[in-house]
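Now for today's protein:

——
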Amino acid sequence: MKRRQLVHVAQIHPTSFVLLFEKGMTGSSWSVRDYSQPGRVSVRYAAEFGLTLSEIRETAMRNRVMFDAPTVATSNLDYWHGLTTGYNRRYLQRTTAVSLPNSPEPVACEHTGLPSCYPLLGSEGLKNHPKWSKRHDRERILLSGRSEDWVTWNAFTLLTSASNSAWWQRLLSLAQKSNSGLKVVAEWLEIPEVRLWESVASPTGYELASRARMRCSREPRTSSTQPQSHPGRRPIRDRHSSIQLSIARFH
């Protein structure tokens, strides 16, 4: 979990988001910065509140008013005031302030049955995926506004739904438009079975090019003869293994 979040908790500020800023890894040193007024910031520290950091986060998560904050300098008053007022307009003008619960346990998101700030499609399928067992990956999917894995999962859940049988042909068509020399062979026309986040060996050409780039850099891994891993690559493989598509980023 990131150390900066924009949160709304009534006991801290009844009408505005504040920047929750954690210092260190103990969870005992943190502050909140109020940018709701133009040209100024009000800073308050952990000792001033009768709340723990986990209580603040759980309350904000439960009410879906906690969002990862950008790493912009906290001295940039105009930026943070604009961001804060934007969140206030979007999320607080149509809701009322909610007090801290008696129990620290988060309430499940109505979309998924999970403690998530963001709607997750096909959550049962994701819970059966090996990625779900990794705490960091799971929390990022559920809580981060910048999770590429959340986008990937929801996008392919929509693409591969029973009502959508043309998604693969559409992707092939887009690939041909972007690569005029691409020839689609008959074996590619069958709709593939999507399997996300599997580790696969890099193609030989890509591996050689990657090693060449690293030799020109200062990275110390270039002497290794083992296949290099490329975090973030998302393979889609068909049931006959005749095609493999790796996506570095999906937006």
